[in-house]
Amino acid sequence: MPEGHTVHRLAAALRAGFGEQRVRTSSPQGRFSEAADLDGWVLANAEAVGKHLFLAFVPDASVDAGAPVTRYVRVHLGLYGSWTFAGEPGFATVHAIGAPRVRIGEREEGLDDGDVDWRRIVPRPTTRLRIAGPQGLADLTGPTACEVLDAAGRQAVIDRLGPDPLRADADRRRFVDRVLASRTAIGVLLMNQDVIAGIGNIYRAEVLFRARLDPTVPGRDLTRGMVEGIWEDLVPLMEYGARTGRIVTTQPEHRDIEARIVERSRGTRQNGDEDPDVVPREKSFYVYHRQTLPCRVCATEIRSADMAARTVFWCPRCQTVRSRRAAWSREHPAAPWALAPERSERP
């Protein structure tokens, strides 16, 4: 399932490709009949809130986004949803977001979308929504949710979500207060979208390692400073992810230490894996999918267990602090969070 930074990248790609343009909308699969009602409308905005994408449509460019007539297409990709793009050179900043990451046209014609006229590409039978503009198109397949909402419906979804670290309007106090009031383990709370929006399994595992927190510690056992520290660490990590499409949580001095990862059958894929200039995935994480391998910091074997219906990963030596982060710092002066580079360079 894409994490929050990916959905913010998706919103930016849709704004760049279709923003303030009159578009054609259709549902080749036939399961999103509301697409016909929006055909010919203008895409006024695309925004992400956690893992939810909202596409704001207005009947004419003279109508402001947010006017009573505005309709919002809410999309949640879930485990299997994806957007794929095709169009003129420079149309989209990405070719695909979600799973599977293939280009429009590859399956039908065996060709890269650079070798085929995007206007002639036939949608896959599974395409829930197609958006076509003057310069390109985007196809949505396999989402968990795809529905049309009015302003009240959009707000109702947002109101039940926790704050999103990537949004300028996020209120981190809501996150901090919710954690400190809960008996639930911090590893569970971080995966609860009602507590904090946009965090997935990778960010959960990695930010807890960087904070030196045992995933099983109840939220109420933490100090306010520790919970605020989680938020403060997530913001630049997710900003980096939104900017590059990659999750990288390791400090440069640790990346070549035990540079391995325990791959699944498909592997832990990230955007740009084929680019030799990016941090490879086997060097990107401290604990995520590194179970049974030595910790990059203390050499203790990384463990894994089921938590909140997902697998959590942690180092049993590094992640032992329950109430005083400073104690770990004195014992382990090489803590990654203590060595964080300047914000402009920090992954």
Could you explain how this protein is built, in words?
The protein is an alpha+beta fold and 347 residues long. The chain has two domains: 4-158, N-terminal domain of MutM-like DNA repair proteins; 164-339, Helicase, Ruva Protein, domain 3 (Orthogonal Bundle), CATH 1.10.8.50. It is 24% helix and 18% strand. The protein has helices spanning 4-18, 35-38, 106-109, 151-159, 172-180, 186-189, 201-211, 224-244, 325-331, and strands at residues 21-22, 24-26, 42-49, 52-58, 71-76, 82-87, 96-98, 127-132, 136-141, 145-149, 303-307, 310-314. The strands form three sheets. Strands 1-3-4-5-10 form a five-stranded antiparallel sheet. The protein has a five-stranded antiparallel sheet with strand order 2-8-9-6-7. It has a two-stranded antiparallel sheet with strand order 11-12. α1 runs parallel beside α8, α5 packs across α8 (224-244) and α7 (201-211) crosses α8 (224-244). The two termini are 21 Å apart.
User: Total helix count?
Assistant: 9
Through-space gap between termini: 21 Å
What integer value in Å does the Rg equal?
21 Å
Number of strands: 12
Report strand %. 15-25%
Number of domains: 2
Structural class: alpha+beta
Spatial ordering of strands, largest sheet: 1-3-4-5-10
Helix content: 10-25%
Q: Report the CATH C-level class of the largest domain.
A: Mainly Alpha
SSE run: HEEHEEEEEHEEEHHHHHEEH
